[in-house]
Amino acid sequence: MTFDFETRIDRRGTGAIKWDRTIATHGQAAPGEAFAGDGPPPIALTIADMELASPPAVLEAMTRRIAHGIFGYTLPTPEYRAAAAEWQRTRHGWDMPADAILTFHGVVPALYLLVRGLVPPGGKVLLQAPVFPPFFDVVRRNGCEAVIDELVLEDGRYRMDFARLERLFADPALGLFVLCNPHNPTGRAWTRDELARVAELAQRHGVQVVADEIHGDLVMPGCRFTPFGSLDLPAARKAITCNGLSKTMNLAGLALCNIVVPDAPLRERIAALIMGAGAFGVNPISEAGFVAGWRSGGPWLDALMRHVDGNRRFVADFLDERLPAVRLVPPEATYLLWLDFRNLGLAPDEIGERVTTRARVRIENGAAFGAGGAGFFRVNVACPRAMLAEAMERIAGALGSNR
Ligand SMILES: Cc1ncc(COP(=O)(O)O)c(C=O)c1O
């Protein structure tokens, strides 16, 4: 079966944050302001959702659910948990227990809930930067302190410095480690060996791990994603994993995710936190879409990742030819490209300004991703090739390319 990843769908006027909202996110000019005035229509390659329609099987299931006509209070069905568990088992080799699944309204809200519920005020939360900027807000807004472990970029690939990680884990005030696997924005899908070393450190120092695995299904052809919870080690069995289909099948607006807690006493505690937030049940349309996605969305996802990989190659070739000073950090997962502009000879703010106002393209300024992010920009390539090509052409023009 073939799927359409080339039709351009106009999202303007739908309330899409990426296209419509005038919000000053991540230190960049708000689109409403920056894109006012004359010039070609703006192109937004920012926030991690896709410019592509969800899988036909998901759309059909949600349409059927709408036709049912009643949308009362709903809990996840047994099929929901079974389909989620089966997906992890068949795609990623994790025997994720179906009864370990709790649901919530999104991974970011889940992280707020977990930090608030598990870390005392003033406690410390370990993050690995550069990282998805809302992680910093989650920690700060809960009155906690973010401890930053800066990832090391070596030969075009990020790695963890385990000696430093061990020192940070040894701090008795450390309440939680938020592992981003695969990692946004560096594109690393951590290997089994790396995850085992993390699990050993967490066990040795009694640190609770929360694994944000929302990008886990978005694996580049030839690469592999290892769920942290699939490791047969005590800290992995005790880990809390956030996963779901919001990134995988472009369903983020449906506001549904799993919080997977195999450890029964911890699960009871987190279930109580969920009830304490009054966050009861699921949206029935989301539920139907997720079940269909897990059951039937595999071929679509495989085709999507071939398309994303093609877009990655397109950008790599484009940079080689037109902007050779800009380097692409090759991703193992996610549809986000992390581009290194440090050798271009322009200050990051100048690059951001030119891309936004001259090219009328929006990309994310790496400075917002914390330590090690300055001089990098993140580009979302989950879009039709023609849209990406036009954006790259305009960016090259604004930055003074080879041609
Ligand atoms: C690492 C990471 N976690 C969580 C989210 C957002 O998840 P949700 O939409 O379920 O809150 C994103 C979105 O970009 C992300 O990159």
* SS-based class: alpha/beta
Strand order of the largest sheet: 2-10-9-8-7-3-4
What's the number of helices? 13
Number of strands: 15
Which compounds are bound in this model?
pyridoxal-5'-phosphate
- Helix fraction? 25-40%
Largest beta-sheet details:
7 strands, mixed
Secondary-structure element order, as H and E? HEHHEHEHEEEHEHEHEEHHHEEHEEEH
The CATH topology label of the largest domain is Aspartate Aminotransferase, domain 2
Residue-averaged pLDDT? 95
CATH class category of the largest domain = Alpha Beta
C-alpha geometry: globular
Task: Describe this structure as you would to a colleague.
The protein has 403 residues and is an alpha/beta fold. The protein has 2 domains: 25-55 and 299-399, Aspartate Aminotransferase, domain 1; 70-296, Type I PLP-dependent aspartate aminotransferase-like (Major domain) (Aspartate Aminotransferase, domain 2), CATH 3.40.640.10. It contains 13 helices and 15 strands. The strands form 4 sheets. A 7-stranded mixed β-sheet has the order 2-10-9-8-7-3-4, with helices on both faces. The protein has a 4-stranded antiparallel β-sheet with strand order 11-12-15-14, covered by helices on one side. The chain has a two-stranded parallel ribbon with strand order 1-13. Helix 8 (234-237) links the parallel strand 8 and strand 9. Helix 3 (78-92) runs parallel beside helix 10 (284-296). The longest helix has 25 residues, at 298-322. The radius of gyration is 21 Å and the shape is globular. The two termini are 39 Å apart. Mean pLDDT is 95; it is low at 22-29. Pyridoxal-5'-phosphate is lined by residues 48, 106-108, 132, 180, 184, 212, 214, 246, 252, 257.
